[in-house]
Amino acid sequence: MSNMTNSQAWDYAVGMIKVDGLEPTKEFKEYIEKEKRGEVTMQDIKEYLDKKYKVRDI
Predict the structure, then answer these.
(1) Containing domain of residue 51, as a range?
(2) Helices 26-36 and 42-52, interaxial angle, to 10°?
(3) CA 38 to chain centre
(4) How many folded domains does the chain comprise?
(5) Distance from C-alpha of 28 to C-alpha of 34, rounded to nearest angstrom
(6) What sign does the CA torsion over 34, 13, 18, 56 have?
(7) For residue 46, is it within any domain?
(8) N or C: which end of the chain has fewer CB within 10 A?
C-alpha cells in the first residue's frame, strides 16, 4: 500500500469498512474529504474520533 495516494488509501479503508456491512457516518466521510483536500490533518481526525467515541466512566 506504500504506492497509494492519500485519497486511494482512504478509499481502500472505507471499502474495507463496507466489506463488513458497515457505513461510515456522513460526518466522518466529510472529515475524510477534508483530509484528502488538506483542510484537516490526521491528528484532527484522531481527535474527532477520540472525542466522539471516548469511553465515559460510569
Answers:
(1) 23-58
(2) 170
(3) 13
(4) 1
(5) 10
(6) negative
(7) yes
(8) C
Q: Cβ distance 35 to 42 under 8 Å?
A: yes
Domain assignment present for residue 36? The answer is yes
Is 15 within a domain? no
- Average confidence score pLDDT of the chain: 88
What would the pLDDT profile of 2-37 be if each residue is shown by its tens digit? Answer: 688 889 999 999 999 999 999 999 999 999 999 999
Considering the domain boundaries, does residue 17 fall inside one? no
Q: Give the amino acid at 35.
A: E
* Separation of alpha carbons 10 and 24, rounded Å: 12
pLDDT for the residue 49 = 87
Non-local CB neighbours of 42 within 8 Å, separated by 6+ positions: 35
